[in-house]
Amino acid sequence: MMRFRLLSLSAAITLVVAGCSAGGGTSAAPSAAPTEPPTALPSSEQTAAPTPRYAVPAAITSAGRIVWCTDVSYPPEEFYAADGTTAQGSDIDIANEIGKRFGVTTQIDNTGFDGIIAALLAKKCDMIISGLSNTPKRAQQIDFVDYLIVGEGIMVPAGNPKGIKGVPDLSGKSIAVQLGTTNQAALDKINADFKAAGKPLMDIQTFQQDTDAFQQLNIGRVDAYATDAPVLVYYQTQNPGKFELVGDLIEPGPIGIGVRKEDSELKTAVAKVIDDMYAEGLMKQIVDKWGMTNAVILLK
């Protein structure tokens, strides 16, 4: 099993979120129109149309868009820009890249995480991209195209006033977490172990949005906050000197794009895009751009 120290993740991490703009240039003047139409090649010499790079399902092509179910409350993977309406983050970049390569537009449908799989199954969106861990239980409901490996961790106030150095020290402490996440499931499992050992349980406080869970720690209402490593590193970087990351990462595992089981053609096309993004170095560029370099593991 892979284990990582969260304390080592935060060292020398710089969050880079600045976008790049293309430089302008002068265009050459258009050449004069030909006085006679070009002579067509004989049919035997005409070039055949290239085979499409991705076998995009007809339903996506005809709709002209991909609708993504995403819980836009999980920086740096998905969160709103300062305008409050533009979704941004590593997952958004990946979704946009898939749409671009499919030749369609990308639409982000902000969806509560605890109901995100139900929304996909109800066909309220085409796919899920939302830092969704590929777990055996979820894989019974939907298929996944994995794209990163991510672990879960714990954040406490600077100075660690409650002395939480790892999971055993969470006994009797209060901790905030997002509802319906693998983070909550991990805490529930730890609490079951505490109960079996006769130790005081954690006071696990759940919230609809991960940002709300973080705010409970930020305003001092809980002793700790649990979420995925990229999110912890983001908040620590955005609030220098205010928080500490403690203990080992809990159960690093894959996160993936969620696809309905009957949409095998779509899954195959998306998997091809992810493979190409890795081969071209684009996945690493996205991870680096959003300050996640030392908080995730690339698959390739």
Question: In a nutshell, what does this entry contain?
Answer:
The chain is an alpha/beta fold. It has helices at 6-9, 58-63, 90-102, 116-121, 136-139, 182-196, 210-218, 229-238, 264-279, 282-289, and strands at residues 65-70, 79-80, 87-88, 105-110, 127-128, 143-157, 174-178, 203-207, 224-228, 243-259, 296-297.
- What oligomeric arrangement do these chains adopt? single chain
Distance between the termini: 18 Å
Low-confidence spans: pLDDT under 50, at least 5 residues?
A: 1-50
Assign the CATH class of the largest domain: Alpha Beta
Radius of gyration: 23 Å
Largest sheet, if any?
A: 9 strands, mixed
Please describe what this structure looks like.
The protein has 2 domains: 144 residues, D-Maltodextrin-Binding Protein, domain 2 (3-Layer(aba) Sandwich), CATH 3.40.190; 102 residues, Periplasmic binding protein-like II (D-Maltodextrin-Binding Protein, domain 2, 3-Layer(aba) Sandwich), CATH 3.40.190.10. It is an alpha/beta fold and 300 residues long.
